[in-house]
């Protein structure tokens, strides 16, 4: 493939390690489990994997509370297993991206243990300590300050109280954090996903945030002093210099409270390669009135096209991840997959790097838990208003055996009961499955350069339809999607359009119920 750049043209697949594949029968996925499924990923046709944290953790936020950034939690394996995973992935042409959580550590991290031990400990200033709290709120509920009786001061935590925020204004902290990047790049890691990176720096005087209207106390303030501080940019420059001292490394940031405008401001040749804007994951109280529909989707695409194109920044596309209800749970009804086919088409054919979440290729749904079974801290806190994120973190559904081919033992979270029918093995055998559709579109992306790099051009359709071109100087590809039940006609631009893929019986220019067409101009 001509000029194929893995992080721009490829597809990145997110693995939540504890739920992907369990090799040692303890009910928790692990690195060896991932290695055993690499051939599956090659067969599917993805280009890179992003691994959610597998570092040592007391699990107060399921791995996002790290007690050592440069080791592997023994439950997931060892550094030797990790080296083997990188080698095996690379042997198959798959790149490896790690999830770096550097805004905070676990309160069990040696840095924090030292910091809290006394007011004059050399690492005291590695975290943010104050005599009195300001009005900041933790995203997972309650005040962002915890009183520590050992030294009689409060420390800042934007998430759980077991996740103290580090003080990025301290130069030694910055040095130590850069050393983490270095450590993993030396081990062959190809890229990083930066957890809530735009919260690293806080205003030096820690002023109160101004109030605004909102539901939770966290939403009732404007986050102008706890995130998006100007010091972020010089640090991004420094980090990018380090990354560029290794060949073809990549960094994507999780922009905390992202609009497309904010996202692009963090990207560029001396900043991040990319940052997430969660344009297609949005759900709010009005969702039942204005649900997933082509008009809304097109508005989102156009909005982000305008911002990203104007800034010359390459976008990323996300439909699901470990923090959100899965695509199928947001948009589909029951076990019907038509909405998942539409979601998958958009994910893989819009302009930008697609991030696919494990199980999305078989249309996995969220599990439902009784209140007492909820593990996720914000779910415990806000139930029943918000049930937390356990739902989208259930074990991968490989086959119909007792524990779905995920493990030989009872998994840490229950399997979704539909795994008996909805699983990889069953879908591989069914030519009309979402899995085989996904595989076909992934193969088309490889074959057709316009699907990867082509400009995005929206087309007119009747209500309920969505159509667009991806176009280079030499090639045009047309996507037409019918979100509804009714047959519809759309006007084809001139030329001889060949069907590369269709999910039903329509012909170019005509879509039957829920049909998706991909056409190529010969
Ligand atoms: C990010 C992660 C989320 C985690 C939080 C705190 O938003 O995606 O899973 O809980 O940061 O680290």
Distance between the termini: 20 Å
Rg from alpha-carbon coordinates = 23 Å
Low-confidence stretches: none
Strand content: 5-15%
- As a percent range, the share of helical residues equals 25-40%
Kindly report the average pLDDT value: 96
Molecules bound to protein = alpha-D-glucopyranose
Largest sheet: 8 strands, parallel
Task: Tell me the total number of β-strands.
Answer: 18
Shape: globular
Number of helices: 15
* Widest beta sheet: strand line-up: 9-8-7-3-2-1-11-10
**Sheet/helix structural class:** alpha/beta
Provide a brief overview of the structure.
Helix content is 27%, strand content 15%. The chain is α/β, with parallel strands linked by helices and 522 residues long.
């Amino acid at each position: 493939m001509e000029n194929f750049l893995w992080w721009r043209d490829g597809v990145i697949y997110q693995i939540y390690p504890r739920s992907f594949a369990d090799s040692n029968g303890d009910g928790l996925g692990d690195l060896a489990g991932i290695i055993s499924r690499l051939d599956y990923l090659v067969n599917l046709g993805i280009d890179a994997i992003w691994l959610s944290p597998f570092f040592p953790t007391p699990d107060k936020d399921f791995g996002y509370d790290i007690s050592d950034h440069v080791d592997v939690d023994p439950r997931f394996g060892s550094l030797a297993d990790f080296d083997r995973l990188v080698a095996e992935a690379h042997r198959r042409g798959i790149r490896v991206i790690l999830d770096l959580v550097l805004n905070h550590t676990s309160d069990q991290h040696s840095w924090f243990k030292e910091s809290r031990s006394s007011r004059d400990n050399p690492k005291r200033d590695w975290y943010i300590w104050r005599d009195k709290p300001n009005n900041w709120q933790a995203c997972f509920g309650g005040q962002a300050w915890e009183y520590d009786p050992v030294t009689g001061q409060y420390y800042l935590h934007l998430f759980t109280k077991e996740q103290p925020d580090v003080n990025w204004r301290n130069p030694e902290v910055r040095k130590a954090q850069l050393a983490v990047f270095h450590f993993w790049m030396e081990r062959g890691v190809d890229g990083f996903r930066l957890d809530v990176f735009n919260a690293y720096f806080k205003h030096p005087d820690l002023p109160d945030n101004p109030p605004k209207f909102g539901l939770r106390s966290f939403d009732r303030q404007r986050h102008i002093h706890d995130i998006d501080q100007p010091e972020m940019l010089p640090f991004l420059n420094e980090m990018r210099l380090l990354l560029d001292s290794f060949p073809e490394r990549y960094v994507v940031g999780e922009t905390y409270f992202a609009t497309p405008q904010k996202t692009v401001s963090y990207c560029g040749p001396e900043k991040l390669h990319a940052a997430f804007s969660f344009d297609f994951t949005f759900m709010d109280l009005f969702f039942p009135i204005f649900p997933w529909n082509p008009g809304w989707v097109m508005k989102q695409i156009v909005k982000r096209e305008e911002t990203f194109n104007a800034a010359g920044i390459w976008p990323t596309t996300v439909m699901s991840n470990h923090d959100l209800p899965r695509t199928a749970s947001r948009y589909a009804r029951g076990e019907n997959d038509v909405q998942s086919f539409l979601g998958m088409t958009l994910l893989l054919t819009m302009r930008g790097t697609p991030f696919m979440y494990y199980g999305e290729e078989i249309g996995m749904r969220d599990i439902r838990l009784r209140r007492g079974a909820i593990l996720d801290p914000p779910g415990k806190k806000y139930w029943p208003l918000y049930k937390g994120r356990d739902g989208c973190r259930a074990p991968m559904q490989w086959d119909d055996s007792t524990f779905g081919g995920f493990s030989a033992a009872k998994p840490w979270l229950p399997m979704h009961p539909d795994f008996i029918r909805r699983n990889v093995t069953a879908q591989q055998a069914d030519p009309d499955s979402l899995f085989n559709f996904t595989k076909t579109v992934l193969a088309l992306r490889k074959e057709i350069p316009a699907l990867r790099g082509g400009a995005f051009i929206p087309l007119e359709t009747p209500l309920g339809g969505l159509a667009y071109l991806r176009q280079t100087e030499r090639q045009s590809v047309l996507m037409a999607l019918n979100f509804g039940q009714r047959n519809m006609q759309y006007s084809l631009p001139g030329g001889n359009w060949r069907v590369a893929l269709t999910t039903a019986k329509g012909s170019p220019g005509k879509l039957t119920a829920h049909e998706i067409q991909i056409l190529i101009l010969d």
